[in-house]
Amino acid sequence: MNRRRQWTLRALCVDGVAIAVGACVSAALYFGSIRPAMLASAGVEATRERIEGERETVERLRKDRRDLDRAIAQVRGDLAELRVLPEPLSRLNQRLSALTELTSAVGLHVDQLTPGKTTPAAKHSTVAIRLTGRGGYQACAGFLLRLHEEMPDTAVSGLRASANIDSPDRPIEFVFDLLWYAAPDGTVDRK
Fold it and tell me: Is residue 44 part of a domain?
């Protein structure tokens, strides 16, 4: 029996070594190839999801850009239609006359209409104009509305109005500080 026992022990040792070698090879194969492939697959899937999210963001941004480009083109077209061609400084007297006519048309009484300092610039010159007078509140509001519509090259830079609360039937006294944007010196009237 001794021999048989020795043989069984040898077989168990050989089988044990074979099992140990197989386990080591399996572990090496799993940790060296299979597990990294599984982790890489999970990483690839996460990357794929991230890329898909980025694609959606890029498409949304492209759509927003197209919308903005259309809006910019529309605004540029509108600006081209509304372009105000400034009159030359030599037409200052005509401008003052037109302002006087406008105030009369809305029911304001002009006490004084005085051109002020002219400030030259590359694309336009500005002329300060002070308009003082009397009239009703609605007439003043009507003047501002019509000034905006009929003389878009003239801006209101200041407005003062005062009324006597003891005499509500008396007209208010007003001062409009205006800025007329005129063509710079040396340009030709395009009308």
Answer: yes
Collapsing DSSP states into helix, strand and coil, what is residue 191? coil
Same domain, 9 and 28: yes
Closest to 174 measured CA to CA, from 101, 107, 96: 107
Give tens-digit pLDDT for 104-117. Answer: 999 999 999 999 99
Spans of the chain, pLDDT less than 70: 1, 3-14, 79, 81-83, 185-191
Return the ∠ at Cα 87 (arms to 106 and 121), rounded to 5°: 115
Helix segments in the chain, DSSP class H: 2-29, 35-82, 92-106, 137-150
Non-local CB neighbours of 140 within 8 Å, separated by 6+ positions:
108, 161, 172, 174
pTM above threshold 0.70: no
Tokens 């890029």 correspond to what residue?
58
In this structure, the answer to whether residues 93 and 71 fall within a common structural domain is: no
Do residues 146 and 103 lie in contact, with contact meaning Cβ atoms separated by under 8 Å? Answer: no
Do 142 and 157 reside in the same domain of the chain?
yes
Q: What is the pLDDT of residues 143-152, one digit of tens each?
A: 999 999 899 8
